[in-house]
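Lab meeting, item 3. Inverse folding demo.
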C-alpha cells in the first residue's frame, strides 16, 4: 500500500526581497500539513528573478524552466527590486516569472480574496463593507498586453514612441472563461466578466466568447462590467461579487484592489493553472523596503500552500486545516506589522509561520 503513495515534486523558487522569508514559512506549514495528511513531498530549489540574473545571467534559466515543467507544483516567493530597475523591460527580474507562466502555459490565475473576520477592522474600508467578503478573481495570465506583439520603441518624426499590443484569441478567452464558470459552479454560481467593451475591440470579442461559454452553464448567473465600473464596485459593494473573470492587464490591477479588502495585500494567495504543473505564489511583490527585517507577512504564501494542497494534492481537508490554522492564529490576535491593529500582538514573519505550523499540528 505505502509504495503506492504518490510523492509530489515541489520546486521552490524563493526569488527576491521578502520572497525567501515568506517561502520559508510556507514550507514549514506545508511539511507539517503534509505529515498530518499522510502526503509526501520531494523538494527541489531553483533561482528566479533578480537573484537568477546575478547568479545565472538570466531571470530564469532553461534548467529552472525544465525543473518547473517536471514539478507537480512550484512555490514562488516574489521577484524584483531596485537593484534591477534600470534594466530594459525584457531583461528585468519580472521576466523570470512571466517566462515561467507563459512557457508552462499557466493561463488561469486564481486569486481568492476572503476577509477573515478578525481582520475586518484591518481593512481601510468599513467593517460592514468588507465583512464576510469571499470572492475569487480569475485572471487570464499568458496573453493580453503583457505578451502581445508587436511591442517596442521607435522614433518617428514627432519624437519617441512606445507601443504594446492588446490581443486575445477566441481560444484563449474560451479556456479561461471555462475555468471561471467551473469555479462558480463550486461556489455561489455567479460570474462577473470584466472588460472595456465600450471602447476596445478585444473586449468586444471577450464579451461575445464569455456569453457563448455562459450558455453551457445555465445554472450560473453572469453579468458584465466595464473595468472602471468594476474598480468602483469593488470598494463600493464588494459583497456583490462571487467570481470575477477578466484579462491579464485588468486582472493585475483589480486583484491588488481586491487584496485591500482583506486588510492587506499580505493576505492574498494565488494559484496559476493550466499546464501540467501549477504555480503557487502570494499576490504581493518582493517589498524590498522591508526585506530581511522579519517584518513580512507570510500568510499570503501560507494560504497559497492551502491552494496547493487542495488543487495539486486534491486534499481539501488538508487545505482547510491550513486555513483554519491561519484563522485561529488571527483569532488569537497575532499580527504582522501590515495587519496590526489595537490589541494585536505583533509578531515577526518567522514567528507567524511557527504559530500557524503549531496550529496546523494541533488540528
Ligand atoms: C502579479 C505581479 C506580476 C504581474 C509582476 C511581478 C510581473 O504584479 O503577479 O500580479 O504583473 O503579473
Ligand atoms: Mg500584480
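The presenter then showed the designed sequence:
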Amino acid at each position: 500500500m505505502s509504495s503506492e503513495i504518490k510523492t509530489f515534486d515541489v520546486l521552490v523558487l524563493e526569488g527576491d526581497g521578502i520572497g525567501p522569508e515568506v517561502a520559508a514559512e510556507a514550507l514549514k506549514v506545508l511539511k507539517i500539513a503534509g505529515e498530518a495528511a499522510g502526503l509526501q513531498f520531494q523538494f527541489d530549489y531553483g533561482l528566479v528573478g533578480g537573484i537568477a540574473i546575478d547568479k545565472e545571467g538570466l531571470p530564469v534559466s532553461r534548467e529552472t524552466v525544465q525543473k518547473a515543467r517536471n514539478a507537480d507544483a512550484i512555490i514562488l516567493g516574489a521577484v524584483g527590486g531596485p537593484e534591477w530597475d534600470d534594466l530594459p523591460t525584457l531583461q528585468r527580474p519580472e521576466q523570470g516569472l512571466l517566462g515561467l507562466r507563459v512557457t508552462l502555459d499557466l493561463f488561469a490565475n486564481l486569486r481568492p480574496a476572503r476577509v477573515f473576520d478578525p481582520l475586518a477592522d484591518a481593512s481601510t474600508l468599513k467593517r460592514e463593507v468588507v465583512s464576510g467578503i469571499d470572492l475569487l478573481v480569475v485572471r487570464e495570465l499568458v496573453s493580453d498586453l503583457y505578451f502581445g506583439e508587436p511591442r517596442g520603441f521607435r522614433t518617428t518624426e514627432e519624437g519617441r514612441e512606445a507601443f504594446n499590443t492588446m490581443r486575445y484569441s477566441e481560444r484563449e478567452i474560451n479556456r479561461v472563461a471555462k475555468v471561471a464558470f467551473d469555479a462558480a459552479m463550486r461556489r455561489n454560481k455567479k460570474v462577473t466578466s470584466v472588460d472595456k467593451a465600450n471602447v476596445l475591440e478585444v473586449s468586444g470579442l471577450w464579451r461575445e466568447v464569455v456569453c457563448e461559454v455562459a450558455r453551457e452553464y445555465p445554472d450560473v448567473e453572469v453579468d458584465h462590467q466595464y473595468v472602471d465600473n468594476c474598480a468602483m464596485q469593488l470598494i463600493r459593494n464588494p459583497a456583490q461579487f462571487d467570481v470575477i473573470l477578466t484579462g491579464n492587464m485588468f486582472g493585475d490591477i483589480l486583484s491588488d484592489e481586491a487584496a485591500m479588502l482583506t486588510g492587506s495585500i499580505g493576505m492574498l494567495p494565488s494559484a496559476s493553472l493550466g499546464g501540467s504543473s501549477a504555480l503557487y505564489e502570494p499576490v504581493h511583490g518582493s517589498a524590498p523596503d522591508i526585506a530581511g527585517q522579519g517584518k513580512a507577512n507570510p500568510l499570503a504564501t501560507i494560504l497559497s500552500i492551502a491552494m496547493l494542497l487542495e488543487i495539486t494534492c486534491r486534499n481539501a481537508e488538508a487545505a482547510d486545516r491550513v486555513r483554519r490554522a491561519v484563522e485561529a492564529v488571527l483569532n488569537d490576535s497575532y499580527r504582522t506589522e501590515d495587519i496590526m491593529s489595537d490589541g494585536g500582538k505583533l509578531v515577526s514573519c518567522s514567528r507567524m509561520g511557527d504559530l500557524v505550523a503549531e496550529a496546523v499540528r494541533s488540528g
